[in-house]
Amino acid sequence: MTERSLSYAMRNVPRYTSYPTAPHFNAGVDGKTYAEWLSKLASTDSLSLYLHVPFCRELCHYCGCHTKATRQDAPLQEYARTLLKELELVGDHLQSPGPVRHIHWGGGTPSLLPEQSLIDITGMLRVIFDFAPDLEHAIELDPRYVSKSLVKTLASMGVNRASLGIQDLDEAVQQAIGRVQPYSVVKTAVSYLRSVGLTDLNFDLMYGLPRQTLQTIRETVARTVELRPRRIALFGYAHVPWMKKHQRLIPEHQLPGSSERMELAAAAREDLLTAGYQAIGLDHFALPEDSMAIASSNGSLRRNFQGYTTDQGEQLIGFGVSSIGKLSQGYVQNMSDVGHWRRAIDAGQLPVAKGMALSTDDLLRGRIIEVLMTDYECDLAQVAAAFGTDPADLSGSIGRLGELADDGLVTVDGWKVSMTEKGLPFVRLAAAAFDAYLEGNSTGEKRHSLAV
């Protein structure tokens, strides 16, 4: 690895699962605004639903999610009760919503909710919304809490895709990150899921974790491949102890250095490709027959708060603490404190804390960034025409690509921007050139993660 490449990898930039990114949301969008936006959803709008459950049995040291640990069932039961009330509250503001094409349960560990509550919440969703015949119904799972009873419940709910948090299968690494999860536990969870016909499985792996070596990450990939999940996400660990205080439990001297971090990512990627997986975007891999690989090849791959996705829902409605929704008019984010969220709902108020109304320029730049992140190239003139704007308005952003172009990471041919093979790992840096909210600010701000 060259010193120049290492310098790029160490820069801090957004992951661009949204644009503008969440730090720019503001209190100018409130429950009243959201109610108005919801009322304008039409039957021609396809929908995506996200349900956030901010609870785990224990908090992993590396975790960057909005969640908390609970050993008690009472908070989970109360949360489920309030979530049902939020569904009804949102439903009261809908006039004629279109079909739901995607449902995603995230967290936390959403499957910790009582099984009857999972069934009741899904039933309420069916009352409020129409489910499309090709609905993808996905849930995030902790393999340590997958039981025979749970998988039967998931099947009865219509869940047809499950994502398992694996991270790493080496015992020393697991000890260092506070998530001891033997391979046998993962294998059993996979067996249970497949026994009820739930065969579309995703695994989440991480590189850049403490005590990771080339040998340990390659062994993790080898064991993962043995279980043959349809999709694999390979995320870089974001060490942000100033934002997530529990990450201070990870001794920084045990983290791989910047050069080692890139070598870990490259080794895992090489082994996944050798095993027959196709690279999808920046950090996903899929078997050729999986819908994500198909979407990548036909140009329908998308990127949202779940990362790379096949979700074609035009409007996203979020439920639960801290969840984010995106409608045509802009973003909305729920309150992040469970108590405040519950009290707002019990008072009959939409629990919105902040959001952002989108301008034409926001929509234009957001689309350019998404296309770059999914296709690695973008015809700026074509995108600008779709929004009725002049591509010349993007000249400043093109200028900011100069450094990357000089180093052979990106090419600019007229209005067409393309990542080179060498530049693929640095696509977030190219996307950042089109981020108007980063202008005048350092891309090294600590609120963002490392570029690679």
Describe the protein:
Strands 10-11-9-8-7-6-5-2-14 form a nine-stranded mixed β-sheet, sandwiched between helices. Strands 15-16-17 form a three-stranded antiparallel β-sheet, covered by helices on one side. It is 37% helix and 21% strand. Mean pLDDT is 93; it is low at 440-446. The protein has helices spanning 3-9, 31-39, 74-92, 115-128, 148-157, 171-177, 183-195, 214-227, 258-274, 291-298, 338-346, 360-375, 380-386, 395-399, 402-406, 427-432; strands spanning 12-13, 47-53, 55-56, 68-69, 100-107, 131-141, 161-167, 201-207, 231-236, 278-280, 284-286, 302-304, 307-309, 315-319, 324-327, 330-334, 352-357, 377-379, 410-413, 416-419, 449-450. 45% of the residues are buried. It has 16 helices and 21 strands. Helix 4 (115-128) packs parallel to helix 5 (148-157). By secondary structure, the protein is α/β, with parallel strands linked by helices.
Descriptors for this entry?
globular, alpha/beta, three-stranded antiparallel sheet, nine-stranded mixed sheet, 452 residues
Could you give a quick summary of the protein structure above?
This protein has 452 residues and is of the alpha/beta class.
Topology:
Layout: H1 3-9, E1 12-13, H2 31-39, E2 47-53, E3 55-56, E4 68-69, H3 74-92, E5 100-107, H4 115-128, E6 131-141, H5 148-157, E7 161-167, H6 171-177, H7 183-195, E8 201-207, H8 214-227, E9 231-236, H9 258-274, E10 278-280, E11 284-286, H10 291-298, E12 302-304, E13 307-309, E14 315-319, E15 324-327, E16 330-334, H11 338-346, E17 352-357, H12 360-375, E18 377-379, H13 380-386, H14 395-399, H15 402-406, E19 410-413, E20 416-419, H16 427-432, E21 449-450
Parallel strand pairs: 2-5, 2-14, 3-4, 5-6, 6-7, 7-8, 8-9
Antiparallel strand pairs: 1-21, 9-11, 10-11, 12-13, 15-16, 16-17, 18-20, 19-20
Helix pairs in contact: 3-4, 3-11, 4-5, 8-9
